[in-house]
Amino acid sequence: MSRYGFYEYESMAEKKEKAARKLTTYQRKHPGAQPILIKGTKIANSFWGKAWCDHLKHYADYDNRIDRGRSYIKNGFVFDLTIEKGLIDGVVCGSGSKLYQVEIEIDPTTDQQLVQQIGGHIESLEALANGQFPKKLTETFLTSDNGLFPNLNEINLSCNCPDWAHMCKHVSAILYAVGAKLDLDPLLLFELRGIDTTALIKKSVEEKMTTLLENAHTATSSRIIEDDAIIDLFDL
Questions:
Q1: Which of 11, 16, 113, 144 could form a disulfide with 75 if both were Cys (CB 3.0 to 4.6 A apart)?
Q2: CA–CA separation, 78 and 34 (whole Å)
């Protein structure tokens, strides 16, 4: 602010540089901080990261606000982001360099049908993380009803900034930052929704083993019949 009480204009480059200096100070005080730093023009590049960011566009009730956080994350204003079951915590640097605390509560999924649909189709955690699974399963994940991505009625947004809006630009920045975070660890999405990925893989393995055993039994039975037929043929 100038000595006349007016705010002095700052270019985005100046704001970005100021945020970078403040981030260095923040990290000294919080060595475990997990900032989100974007390289390039895209917020997310992985299957899960892009799917998360695309899903945010469905929050039509906040259509005029959800995109306000994109510049914040692209310019390094997200200083910290952690994800655990049902909770996203973040720290965002405001345009005036003040830090704001964001908390987003997300209901863990209780739809066992989703878990049942996933089971039996995942080869490994690596395949799951890389988005390598049948197309029909992709549609299951991305469906707007009872899918893996939360609807607005499953989310509670909170920020300690003075903005009266339910979804301020700091909340929006954190929501987009989650997409970038999923590039680094896609399985965090399953943890957020309360889905045990280890159990999913175990279920897939068990179902495949059951199928293999059934096929082996069928093949053995057929072979026995064939052998009996040969015995009858040669009157042995």
A1: 16
A2: 9
Cα separation, 131 vs 142, in Å, equals: 12
User: Residue 131: CA atoms inside 13 Å, Cβ hemisphere, count?
Assistant: 18
pTM, to two decimals? 0.79
Instruction: For residue 62, give the amino acid letter.
Output: Y
Q: Which two tokens stand for residue 174?
A: 């954190």
Sequence-ordered list of residues with C-beta below 8 angstroms from that of 195, at least 6 positions apart, any chain: 108, 109, 114, 115, 118, 148
User: 125: how many CB neighbours lie within 10 A of its CB?
Assistant: 15
pLDDT score for 146: 64
HEC readout, 81-138: EEEECCEEEEEEECCCCCEEEEEEEECCCCCHHHHHHHCCCCCCHHHHHCCCCCHHHH
Sheet with 87-93: list strands edge to edge: 78-84, 87-93, 99-106, 155-159
Residue 206 dihedral angles phi and psi, to the nearest 5°: -60, -40
Encoded tokens for 32: 């475990």
